[in-house]
Amino acid sequence: MQLAPGDPLLNQMGSTGVAGQSSQTREAFLIQKRDLKLDKPLILNFNYFRDYTEPVHIAAHYASMTDEQIVAELPALADAKPGSPEAARRLFLKRLDIEGFDRRLADSDHGYRLAKAINCYVGIYCEDTGVHGVSSAMAILDADSMDLQQKVGAIRCLNRMVVDPFVYTYSRYPTNEETRAIVSAWSTWWKRAEPTFAKLDLGRREALEARFEALVAETSRGKLFAGMEDFDRDDMRFFAEKLLGDSTLRQKVVASLGLRLYIGKPLLIDVPRDADARLVREVMENWFAYFEPRQNEYVPDIPTKLWAVVADTQYAYMVKRLATFNFGRSALKTREPVSDKIVAAVIVSAPLMFMASIAIYLIAVPLGIICAVNRGKWIDRFISLSLFLLYSIPPFVAGMLFLLFFCYGSYFKWFPMLGLHSEGAESFGFLHYLTDYLWHAFLPVICLSLFSLAGMAMYARTSMLDVIGQDYIRTARAKGVPESKVIMKHGLRNALIPIITLFSGFLPAMLGGSVLVEFLFGIPGMGQLSWLSIEQKDFPTLMALIYIDAIVVMVSILLTDLMYVFVDPRISFESQG
Amino acid sequence: MINSESYFDIVWRQFKKNRFAFVSLWILAPLFLMAIFAPAIASNQPFVFYDGDEVLFPWFRSLFNPSEPVDFSFNMAMIGFFPCLLVLLVLNYKWKRNGIAGRRRLLRAGALYIAITIVLCVAFSFDAIRPKNRYLARTFTEEQFRSNNLNYGIYSPIPFGPREQDLGAVFEGPGYIKPEALQKGSNDGFPHILGTDNTGRDVLVQMIYGTRISLTVGFVAVAIYLAIGVILGAVAGYFGGMVDITVCRIIEIVMLFPSFFLILTLVALIGPSIYIIMVVIGITGWPGIARLIRGEVLKQRSIDYVAAARALGTSHGRVIFRHILPNAISPALVSAPFGIAGAIITEAGLSLLGFGVRPPTPSWGTLLRLGNSNYSYWWLIVMPALAMFMTVTIFNLVGSGLRDAMDPKLRV
After folding, report:
1. Which residues of chain B make contact with A534, given a CB cutoff of 8 A?
2. Does B397 contact chain A (CB < 8 Å)?
3. Which of A239, B85, B343, B397 has the fewest CB atoms within 10 Å distance of its CB?
4. Terminal-residue alpha carbon distance, chain A
5. Angstroms from A393 CA to nearest CA on chain B
6. How far is B262 from chain A (nearest CA, A)?
7. ipTM for the whole predicted complex goes beyond 0.95
């Protein structure tokens, strides 16, 4: 079962090596864990009321040790007296659910592997503790009584607890929300680093202004990076002022990018295990700079804590995401916003489905009427039988046969195999582009419509037969209305009522696309998106797709009910009871 | 004398009038026989094999050791077929003398056959009883063949197995016969009637064995969702109130999700295997049935016979399942053949996407998937497509025949 994908790192840390196989990389898993808040409790979150001082102390203890040091400590853990610090550590490690911990602890052969496992599990414990442990870890940094080793461990823990404490650049698709974090990070750095940058003279400043404006206007990402070359280090003063001063989002994006390219390590946040006191102090200062303004977040007041019991949970975050239609970013490496992906796919699918639906209605309804009018004659039998055979061909089988006979080229090569546009279609004129598109879309549309066409025509036939058997048709005929008028005016208008309400299937189909047909014809629409997101385990996209589909179905069911009332005056919501 | 023709007799009489549907019902029988007797039609294990000093019966032993549980149960059905037929001939004579109606005799015969198959499946699933297959995959060089002609076997009509790979005959077209110089096994001289696939497995044999998978998926999935739908729908319609509201909301929630997408997601998450597919189709397909049954039960509930049954002290369960359901179940039964066709299509579609049956197991969908990877090999597309089209048409025809027969409006 891969319903809840496990941590790939932990899977390798079992007593026998690779205990479970996971198709995910550690990075993908982490991104997903953070995006979907999988480290939070499911429904109720009491973690704010817990005291994390002791576990964080122990975690920091282990985080500062190398594997060899842990191995050396293992015998002491194995025969720890109750009440001693070793016993507390042992209890802590036991609670981490390391596979076969007691057995491996007793067996000295497993020492090295167990130490590796402990290291991993402690790191993951820090990740899962997240915000709750930060204040305890900061307390270790703050306390004078702690030795250097403890502080190194605490810093290493903090690095696992806090994801990217300082954000230096905007993401691929910049938004205004990111500005605050970026500006605060760079201003922390600027306060410290400003004296090391020379003042800029006026001429240089003007030249920079011109270049900067050109970069801001640049739309191609590649050219933007190319234009960033050969600045001077001292020019960073200009960039910093631009970023920290009053500027637009685009200017901030370019300025932060420039700073990031020329400043290698703005703020150190991590230390090696054997760091010296000077380095530790510098890193500690950075962490204090990070922690001070956010103290209220990490040590919240009582009402916030109480609110967090229900609001800071996986479930609450999911409901929030769904309610605000904020689907986040894809779990793939591109980290594209899910909504962009879906919009791009809908734009491809919707016209195809629209054409298919039009084809279905335009062909099926007349066929059904012809059958109903000539009930029992050879033409009815012929059409009914061929419709029935059509109904039995699954769309994807029809698609494969089309591809084989009309596209591949061993029989005919009338239509293209893949895609919706020829190569270089962007440069075509409008008419050429349109014909090219229609040429590509022809077979997929046929495939999409064949199956429903048969069903719809059969439905139209039954519905028309029902109407023709009614008394008022007989009355119309009896009073001498010409047959064509009887059918077209008296019959058709009433027979259309149930058919029009079949429209409810129309909207979901337009949005949902068809997985198999789009897979066969290589069309990057909704169907292919859903298939790909399933195959690539892109859960945020998948959830968004299912959610949107469900909502669309719900809306179209409502529309159908309303349409019934609108189309058929005999039905109304009030007349009940 | 009262006309004692029962409802099902009327339906049957009406059904027989529909020529297409009636013929399809008779085409179904060979389809089932083909699925049941697949090893007798095609197997790479010889019936009798003489290797110079010992006579072996590898085919018979291989029946008990297939690599797929579906194959095992079908093999047991094959072994039980003739004994069951014999017993039934005797019993039929006895039942006839006791004046039991034809329809009832047919039902009893079917039940007996299924029971015998299940007993055999359970009995031979114990390793101690199961005959072991000592016959190893033997291949012979041409010289061995010529010099020692005592090595020979008697094969089934098509001497290829569904998983028997032959890397010397990859992607060969229909009618391919291995040149005599290349023949290694004693079954190599037979033509591959519908060609071979990417690992040299015979396409016709795979299609014959694929029938087993398709029919199993169709029937089991529909049985699962009929059971869920009928029980939930009947309970909701009969008890009404909160039960009804709860069930209806569940139905609406499940119906909101596009079915193929939902099935695809579940299968991809849980793991691709036919058993998972059957269960997933089963647990996603029931809302329609439940709605139909609920409506029918609501109609039946207010009729006097229900009140009479209750007044006699009959329990709720008995009223629902013995009194109401027989009168309410027909719309659900009508949708069963369509459901089977749909399940077969869904399974093939999943296999085409790579989320279905895993490659060594033969199925129509995996053949289509191979065909989709390269359109040069037309037989990998046309043949399974035809098989699927035929099967789906047959089930649809039976379904529409049943629908027309049960529809009182169309009755003459």
Report:
1. 264-265, 268, 355
2. yes
3. B85
4. 51
5. 6
6. 8
7. no
Chain B residues in contact with A391 by the CB 8 A cut-off are 396
Contact list, A393 vs chain B (CB under 8 Å): 389, 392
Q: Which two tokens stand for residue A380?
A: 């009815």
Residues with Cβ within 8 Å of residue B45, at least 6 apart in sequence: B39, B58, B59, B61, B62, B133, B135, B161
Domain boundaries, chain A: 39-161, 176-263, 338-568
Q: A338-568 belongs to which homologous superfamily?
A: MetI-like (1.10.3720.10)
Give the position of tokens 């019966």.
Answer: B57
Residue A271 three-state SS: coil
Using CA atoms of A445, A450, A451, A454 in order, give the dihedral in degrees to the nearest 10.
Answer: 140
Per-window interface: A 497-516 vs B, CB < 8 A: 508, 512, 515-516
Q: pLDDT by residue (tens digit) across A388-416?
A: 888 888 889 999 999 888 888 778 888 88
What's the pTM value of the predicted model, to 2 decimals? Answer: 0.78
CB under 8 A, 24+ apart: contacts of B313-317: B316/B238, B316/B239
Question: What is the average per-residue pLDDT within A39-52?
Answer: 83
Q: Which of B346, B391, B340 is nearest to B365 (CA)?
A: B346
Structural contact between residues A257 and A263, judged by C-beta atoms closer than 8 angstroms:
no
> In the block, which residue shows the tokens 């020019």?
A235
CB atoms A403 and B375 under 8 Å: yes
DSSP secondary structure code for residue B215 in this structure: H
B113 touching A (Cβ < 8 Å): no
B133 Cβ under 8 Å from any chain A Cβ: no
Interface residue A558 vs chain B (CB under 8 A)? no
Strands of the B55-56 sheet, one edge to the other: B55-56, B48-50, B152-154
